[in-house]
């Protein structure tokens, strides 16, 4: 996650050094956070409620004043050159915060006007972004008539009106169903593939694992782990599998040394085993118990397991997300 050294190396999209925030009531929300996000990255920021995520995003988006430390956006010091830094950055907050009685086209054009973009250019951009968000057919409809997923996509389209080099998404798919969420994933992948660096906070661990290449986990105001997603997941010495079986499972399941075996339902078996264990041992034990396996798949909760190990608690919403992903 650290930027490569060298005089000609491009600066990180976001460089945070020893960032601290203590509120007036004495709560120390950030305790010396340092993060580098490389240009073009799709980066996840995870943490339980109260870990410091919202404070960190608030400081980077200039909505919260820092106590000390340094924030640079593509090399621009946020404190010394706030306006210049903010022009490089787009924010999609968790709350829907546009006027429900405005039309999507007007919302985007007016937003661009706040940043000094001429109206003629803003109209062209608005059409481009609404088409990219699959909302062009809703351009002249009242925004309050849009579905929840459409409103989320409109928020992203609005943030893209300034052509930000860095896009920060705070729980962008909160409250939408899994089908809509997967559609939004495709939109975000396209934005990232076009060159925009994305930082994502989410409680949906499946979302982070599917979208992000790098990850930082924050807990009690400190970064407790960071690095490439695959490398962090590889640290887990336990791997989980779901076995779909042909006939109903017996009342007493076989005991397999070194593994944890439990029934999810009458035809699904959940097995956790050391990564180094030969999977054939599991198949042999199941076969000896008269359990015929029809298919097998990896469980999708590896990131949740890593999170629990590092912080001692799952993030809010993890169980609900896991249920939707199943």
Element order: H for helix, E for strand = EEEHEEHEHHHEHEHEEHEEEHEHH
**Chain-averaged pLDDT:** 89
| CATH topology annotation of the largest domain | Rossmann fold
Can you give the helix content as a percent range?
25-40%
The tally of beta strands, per DSSP, is 14
Task: Explain what the structure shows.
- One of its GO terms (molecular function) is ATP binding.
- Keywords: ATP-binding, Nucleotide-binding, Transport.
- InterPro entries: AAA+_ATPase, ABC_transporter-like_ATP-bd, ABC_transporter-like_CS, ABC_transporter_ATP-binding, P-loop_NTPase.
- This is ABC transporter ATP-binding protein.
- Pfam families: ABC_tran.
- The protein is an alpha/beta fold and 326 residues long.
- It has 2 domains: 14-227, Rossmann fold (3-Layer(aba) Sandwich); 236-325, Alpha-L RNA-binding motif (Alpha-Beta Plaits, 2-Layer Sandwich), CATH 3.30.70.
- Helix content is 33%, strand content 26%.
- It has a 6-stranded mixed beta sheet with strand order 6-7-8-3-9-10, sandwiched between helices. The protein has a 4-stranded antiparallel beta sheet with strand order 2-1-4-5. Strands 12-13-11-14 form a 4-stranded antiparallel beta sheet.
- Helix 6 (178-193) links the parallel strand 7 (166-170) and strand 8.
- Helix 3 crosses helix 4.
- It is globular.
In short:
The protein has about 325 residues and is α/β, with parallel strands linked by helices.
Helices, strands, pairings?
Layout: E1 14-22, E2 28-37, E3 42-46, H1 53-60, E4 68-73, E5 76-77, H2 82-86, E6 89-92, H3 104-114, H4 119-132, H5 148-159, E7 166-170, H6 178-193, E8 197-201, H7 205-211, E9 214-219, E10 222-228, H8 229-234, E11 238-245, E12 260-265, E13 268-274, H9 279-288, E14 293-298, H10 302-311, H11 318-325
Parallel strand pairs: 3-8, 3-9, 6-7, 7-8
Antiparallel strand pairs: 1-2, 1-4, 4-5, 9-10, 11-13, 11-14, 12-13
Helix pairs in contact: 3-4
């Amino acid at each position: 996650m650290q930027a490569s050294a060298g005089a000609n190396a491009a600066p990180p999209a976001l460089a945070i050094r020893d960032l601290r925030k203590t509120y007036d009531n004495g709560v120390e929300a950030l305790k010396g956070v340092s993060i580098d996000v490389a240009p073009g990255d799709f980066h996840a920021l995870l943490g339980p409620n109260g870990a410091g995520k919202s404070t960190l995003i608030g400081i980077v988006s200039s909505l919260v004043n820092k106590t000390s430390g340094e924030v640079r956006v593509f090399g621009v010091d946020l404190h010394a050159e706030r306006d210049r830094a903010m022009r490089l950055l787009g924010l999609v907050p968790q709350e829907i915060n546009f006027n429900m009685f405005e039309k999507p086209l007007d919302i985007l054009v007016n937003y661009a006007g706040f940043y000094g973009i001429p109206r003629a250019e803003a109209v062209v951009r608005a059409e481009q972004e609404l088409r990219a968000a699959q909302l062009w057919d809703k351009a002249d409809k009242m925004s309050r008539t849009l579905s929840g997923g459409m409103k989320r996509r409109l928020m992203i389209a609005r943030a893209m009106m300034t052509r930000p080099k860095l896009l920060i998404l705070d729980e962008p798919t909160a409250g939408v169903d899994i089908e809509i969420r997967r559609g939004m994933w495709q939109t975000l992948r396209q934005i990232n593939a076009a060159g925009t660096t994305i930082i994502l906070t989410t409680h949906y661990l499946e979302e982070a694992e599917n979208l992000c290449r790098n990850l930082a986990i924050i807990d009690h105001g400190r970064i407790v782990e960071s690095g490439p997603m695959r490398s962090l997941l590889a640290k887990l010495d336990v791997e989980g599998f779901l076995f779909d079986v042909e006939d109903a499972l017996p009342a007493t399941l076989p005991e397999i040394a070194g593994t944890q075996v439990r029934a999810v339902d009458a035809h699904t078996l959940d097995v956790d085993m050391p990564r180094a264990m030969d999977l054939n041992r599991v198949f042999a034990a199941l076969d000896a118990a008269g359990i015929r396996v029809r298919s097998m798949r990896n469980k999708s909760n590896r990131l949740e397991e890593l999170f629990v190990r590092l912080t001692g608690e799952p993030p809010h919403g993890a169980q609900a997300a896991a249920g939707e992903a199943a």
